[in-house]
């Protein structure tokens, strides 16, 4: 069974976007995964196709209505649908490689792209939406975040990457950032490829790569090391 993604959005024309190109695009054409973009406004009940209203309690901006979103979600994900329901939200749990792998191993995902100030909490609770964040910053809407999530997932589907080992050695797969990479030419603007990488000694190469991963992680993402070793001082 292929991975089936359904995106609920006010801008379905944003999909597949970049997902229609390169590895993801070829996998989409091959049927390794499928993508449906659903227009949320189709489930509005007034002639203006209104999907938002003023926030209860006052304040700036508008809030996406629970009733309209519930109809859209129920259409895309009827009772019995095994796919998780995700809401792309800056207040969500940070997306990491472990969650990406869980999603890639599953049947797919139904992804709601928020807009305006946010989504009525009642539909989040009533439809069991899992809030997911791709970083500590604010976007104009959830669509770019949904594209990021799907790109991360699709590349892990069986047969999408030419070399499965490539995915196993990347950043975050082992809790560390990835080591530096080099290729021809051997000399570039006075900079040489590290000698160990052209030594042919695979044991030394593996040790160098591990050491470089640890160094880069300590410099750039010490939080990853702290998470891996919570008792370390």
Automatic annotation (TrEMBL):
A single GO BP: tRNA N1-guanine methylation
EC assignment: 2.1.1.228
Listed GO MF terms: tRNA (guanine(37)-N1)-methyltransferase activity
Keyword Cytoplasm: yes
Main localization of the protein described in the UniProt heading: cytoplasm
Protein keywords: Cytoplasm, Methyltransferase, S-adenosyl-L-methionine, Transferase, tRNA processing
Presence of keyword Transferase: yes
Residues annotated as binding S-adenosyl-L-methionine: 114, 134-139
Xref: InterPro entries: Alpha/beta_knot_MTases, tRNA_m1G_MeTrfase_C_sf, tRNA_m1G_MeTrfase_TrmD, tRNA_m1G_MTases_N, tRNA_MeTrfase_TRMD/TRM10
Subcellular location: Cytoplasm
Any Gene Ontology CC annotation: cytosol
Ranges where the tRNA methyltransferase TRMD/TRM10-type domain occurs: 6-225
UniProt xrefs under HAMAP family: TrmD
Function, as annotated: Specifically methylates guanosine-37 in various tRNAs.
Homology family: Belongs to the RNA methyltransferase TrmD family.
Record-given protein name: tRNA (guanine-N(1)-)-methyltransferase
Source organism (scientific name): Rhizobium loti
Lineage start: Bacteria, Pseudomonadati, Pseudomonadota, Alphaproteobacteria, Hyphomicrobiales
Encoding gene (name): trmD
């Amino acid at each position: 069974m292929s991975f089936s993604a359904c995106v609920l959005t006010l801008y379905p024309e944003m999909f597949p976007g970049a997902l229609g190109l390169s590895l993801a695009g070829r996998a989409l054409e091959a049927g390794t995964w499928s993508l449906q973009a659903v227009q949320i406004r189709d489930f509005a009940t007034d002639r203006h196709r209104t999907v938002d209203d003023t926030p209860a309690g006052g304040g700036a901006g508008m809030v996406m209505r629970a009733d309209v979103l519930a109809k859209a979600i129920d259409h895309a994900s009827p009772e019995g649908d095994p796919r998780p329901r995700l809401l792309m939200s800056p207040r969500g749990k940070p997306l990491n490689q472990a969650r990406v792998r869980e999603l890639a191993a599953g049947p797919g995902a139904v992804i709601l792209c928020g807009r305006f100030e946010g989504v009525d909490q009642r539909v989040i609770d009533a439809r069991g939406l899992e809030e997911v964040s791709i970083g500590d910053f604010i976007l104009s809407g959830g669509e770019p975040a949904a594209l990021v999530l799907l790109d991360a997932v699709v590349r892990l589907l069986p047969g999408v990457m030419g070399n499965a080992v490539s995915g196993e050695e990347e950043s975050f797969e082992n809790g560390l950032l990835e080591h530096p990479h080099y290729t021809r030419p051997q000399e570039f603007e006075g900079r040489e490829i590290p000698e160990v990488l052209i030594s042919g000694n695979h044991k030394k190469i593996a040790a160098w790569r591990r050491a470089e991963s640890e160094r880069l992680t300590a410099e750039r993402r010490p939080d990853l090391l702290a998470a891996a070793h919570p008792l370390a001082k």
